């Protein structure tokens, strides 16, 4: 059997870990459990020690994605399971992810239902992300931002250099797997209310999550973003030219500017597409 490693990024989640780690050890006694302490100032390390769980500690907070990368490098298992350390994910659902993974998939993601979303705003945003990712990849994406997933370690480590240090590692890793033609599946889960206070700040992180939308497109296939934008500029130039021709009988600089923008945007998309292909190229 493949060795299993369970990685939990945690920042000041001592109260949740105190209840979660014993359940996790009981459900998977043979698994390697690694808590990546992202600069916590609470009792995270002592709780891990009392539970007999390995703890990788950072001297300061580097971000959720950075914790995932540290855990993935340190894990020795052939299969990696990532789950939040805030108590939202049920250890019993790991078996369901692994069962699906055994059917030939390289990544299986726990897809949350609407009830499991942390508020209406987050639910609407996640729905938008899922819709955009589905349009970009051509495959149903049920939960783009879920941090609960099982992956094959060798495949996941291919994309460590692409993963950001912040909260958007699930988005990046999912799109990278789709881009590289690694099969991805989803298993419905019910996430519980997190223990303690969320580290996500609505105002500050709202802009960052908005940028994720553009990152989704540019990460998977830039031309699918730049080509429509180029077409919009070209059509606007045509509309403006038609208006000025019938009204003033001339071609204005604005139409020329829009057509030029259309060409520039398209060429940027073309170059970006080539760069993306190089990033995902695998050496033989």
Strand content: 5-15%
Question: Gap between N and C termini, in Å?
Answer: 28 Å
Give the proportion of residues in helices.
Answer: 40-55%
Shape from CA axes? elongated
In total, the number of strands is 7
Taking the sheet with the most strands, its summary is:
7 strands, mixed
> What is the chains' assembly state?
single chain
**If helices are DSSP runs of H or I spanning 4 or more residues, what is the number of helices?**
10
Main sheet: strand order: 3-2-1-4-6-5-7
Determine the structural class based on helices, strands and strand pairing: alpha/beta
Rg from Cα? 22 Å
Give average pLDDT, whole number.
Answer: 86
Order of helices and strands: EHEHEHEHEHEHHEHHH
Catalogue the unreliable spans. none
Can you characterise this structure?
The protein has 284 residues and is an alpha/beta fold. The protein is built from ten helices and seven strands. It has helices at 14-27, 44-51, 64-74, 94-101, 120-137, 153-157, 169-179, 202-220, 223-248, 253-279; strands at 4-10, 32-37, 54-57, 79-82, 107-112, 149-152, 184-189. The chain has a seven-stranded mixed beta sheet with strand order 3-2-1-4-6-5-7, sandwiched between helices. Helix 2 (44-51) links the parallel strand 2 (32-37) and strand 3 (54-57). Helix 1 packs parallel to helix 2 (44-51), helix 5 packs parallel to helix 8 (202-220) and helix 9 (223-248) packs antiparallel against helix 10. It is elongated and about 80 Å long. The model has no long low-confidence stretch (mean pLDDT 86).
């Amino acid at each position: 059997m493949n060795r299993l490693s369970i990685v939990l990024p945690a920042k000041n989640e001592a109260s949740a870990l105190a209840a979660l780690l014993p359940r996790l050890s009981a459900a998977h006694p043979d698994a390697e459990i690694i808590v990546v302490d992202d600069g916590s100032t609470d009792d995270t390390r002592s709780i891990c020690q009392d539970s007999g769980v390995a703890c990788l500690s950072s001297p300061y907070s580097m971000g959720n994605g950075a914790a995932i990368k540290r855990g993935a490098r340190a894990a020795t298992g052939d299969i990696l399971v990532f789950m939040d350390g805030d108590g939202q994910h049920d250890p019993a659902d790991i078996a369901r992810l692994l069962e699906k993974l055994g059917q030939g998939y390289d990544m299986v993601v726990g897809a949350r239902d609407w009830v499991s979303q942390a508020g209406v705003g987050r639910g609407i945003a996640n729905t938008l992300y899922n819709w955009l990712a589905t349009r970009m990849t051509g495959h149903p994406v049920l939960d783009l931002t879920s941090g609960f997933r099982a992956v094959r370690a060798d495949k996941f480590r291919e994309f460590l250099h692409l993963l950001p240090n912040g909260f958007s590692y699930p988005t990046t890793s999912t799109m990278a797997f789709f881009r590289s033609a690694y099969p991805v599946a989803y298993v419905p889960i019910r996430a519980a209310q997190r223990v303690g206070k969320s580290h996500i700040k609505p105002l500050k992180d709202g802009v960052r999550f908005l940028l994720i939308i553009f990152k989704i497109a540019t990460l998977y296939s830039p031309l699918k973003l730049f080509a429509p934008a180029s077409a919009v500029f070209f059509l606007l130039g045509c509309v403006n030219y038609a208006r000025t021709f019938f009204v003033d009988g001339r071609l204005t600089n604005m139409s020329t500017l829009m057509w030029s923008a259309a060409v520039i945007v398209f060429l940027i998309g073309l170059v970006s597409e080539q760069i993306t292909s190089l990033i995902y190229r695998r050496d033989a």
